[in-house]
Amino acid sequence: MSLKSIKEANFENASVLVRVDFNVEFNNIGEVQEHFRFDIVKKTIDFIAQFPGVKIALATHLGRPEGKDTEYSVEKLIPAVKQALGREVIFVPDCIGEGVNTALANLEENQILLLENVRFYAEEESNDMNFAKQLSAPFSFFVNEAFSACHRAHASVVGVAMCIPAYAGLRLLQEVDTLDRIMTVPEHPAIAVIGGAKIETKLPLIQAFEKSFDAVLVGGKIANEAIDQKIAFSEKVLLPKDFESSMRLDIGPTTIGFYIQMIKIAKTIVWNGPMGKFEEKPYDMGTNAILNAILESSAYVVIGGGESLAVLEKAGALSKIGFVSSGGGAMLEYLGGNMLPGIEALKN
Questions:
Q1: End-to-end distance of the chain based on CA atoms, in angstroms?
Q2: Does residue 282 have a cis bond before it (omega within 30 degrees)?
Q3: Is the whole model's pTM more than 0.85, yes or no?
Q4: Per residue in 193-205, pLDDT tens?
Q5: Where would you tag: which of 92, 102, 147, 244 has the fewest CB atoms within 10 A of its CB?
């Protein structure tokens, strides 16, 4: 897919709004649990920052606030952003208005602005164009570096791209290129491992892999739902042969062994979603066994989805995977063949 890259732009003396996705979880003492989403935007920020006189502001959402709610203020993200980007972070207590203009005017070298939560305005999620114009008004350029938010037709993802010249960030381009490549020219045997919940969201993904991959190994709650609903698949789609318990909270030892043998012969592996209720022992056995088999494989591996990411982070295995997609819902939509509003906006 051809998208305008930031490598085509001249950001000299420009003000640039970068949409990121820092929608992360916190531990019980208020610390960011996952730093992956911060780390992956650094190359794009460094690329933009090399232009003389450029000024950069970051926009993100956090949670699902109903109006302005300090619990969802992105100000608490400052330490994580500073650590990942290696720059002084200046917080702006709004994302629109004169305060943004003033902060931009006062911004110094090696500083970066962090705008307040865009979801403090209901107009964000309705893709209100007046709000998009206010959000984009202080800026010369827009850069989308939030692939994981591209399935949302929101103002800071879609609307802003219609107001000022818009470019794709380096990580977003890498996400799209990687997912395009594994769906069109995967190295065979190609195996997809699909788990988690909500069969209605995972079914298009299973069907997409059914067409282009050699096998789809299904686990988790979606396997139970597929069995209960008697969903018809081709012989490429493999459902569990046994379960860990009568409650079917994890795949059983026979299924684990069979899936591992399939993984061992694969040249391409895509994994999205756990094999069981992995948060509780002993129902994490299937997920951990699949993870270990994938880590031992020489195949090219792509992993995506919030739960799969949590499994990787818990195991300290993020750096051992070929490509980790930041997208959960966005990855599902894209691989399922659906257009992503945020991507479409960058084509215009």
A1: 13
A2: yes
A3: yes
A4: 999 888 888 998 8
A5: 102
